[in-house]
What does this fold into?
Amino acid sequence: MFDLLKFIIPVLNTFPRNQKFVLADRIQNHVSDCYEIVLTAYYASSRDEKKAALRKANLKIEMLRHYVRLCHELRLFSFKQYKEFAARLDEVGRMVGGWINYLN
It folds into this structure.
């Protein structure tokens, strides 16, 4: 999640002014929230708390997928940026999903 956040912030800073404070802010907040939720899950004391946090993170990741696709279709991301962000997001999603499966 940290690497995803580090990657996306400079990309979002290139957005046009009319989307920088709407769509870019929304995406950055979702990535930051997801990062915090994953950290919360890591330090949670019980399996149930971990699972609840990871389910929340999974939902945020799914929302991010939709926002990223929207940005690409609005041509706010280059194809290269879209591909890189989607790959990183997919990797994070697989890691969170694997963690959920492990806890089950």
